[in-house]
Amino acid sequence: MIGKLGASAAFGIIYIFSAELYPTVVRNSGMGASSCCARIGGMVAPYITDLGRLVGGDFGRGLPLVVFGGASVAAGLLSLFLPETLNRNLPETIEDAIHYRKSNRRDNDKDVYINNSYQKDYIAESSAYQTKL
Q1: E strand segments, the chain
Q2: Exposed / middle / buried, residue 91 (Cβ in 10 Å: 0-12, 13-18, 19+)
Q3: What residues form the membrane-spanning segments (predicted)?
């Protein structure tokens, strides 16, 4: 039951997470390509389970589990190379996506601080203006 819960949660979250990976101008195409690859994986899965019959023996019984487990571990390790999106603007164009990983984390934090201080100054100025009225 815990495995089913994890699979259901991952299925619901993957669409939101995948949409963050693509720039706005190619988001629909990227999501379509991702969905296509997922469907290909669903079509190949029964053939992987039949590998056990092809090989036979104790190794054949465990081979499908090794293939599925290896694919899961490989996907987890490859996800470590995805860029961090916390407190950062998502890419809007292809050029933004190319330079997204190259941008310095400190610069982005400074931009957020500048934007927040600008907002604070704007709020202070607008409240001062309203008190004069």
Answers
A1: none
A2: buried
A3: 62-82
User: What amino acid is encoded at 131 in this protein?
Assistant: T
Residue 39 near residue 59, CB atoms below 8 Å = no
- Specify the pLDDT at position 132: 53
- Residues 6+ positions from 54 with CB-CB distance below 8 Å: 60
Contact call for residues 28 and 15 (beta carbons, < 8 A)? no
What is residue 133's predicted lDDT score, i.e. its pLDDT? Answer: 53
CA 90 to chain centre: 12
For residues 62 and 73, give the distance between their C-alpha atoms in angstroms, rounded to a whole number: 16
Count other Cβ atoms within 10 Å, centred on residue 22: 19
Q: Residue 59: exposed, middle, or buried by beta-carbon count in 10 A (0-12, 13-18, 19+)? A: exposed
pTM, whole model, 2 decimals? 0.59
State in Å, rounded, how far the first CA of the chain is from the last one: 64
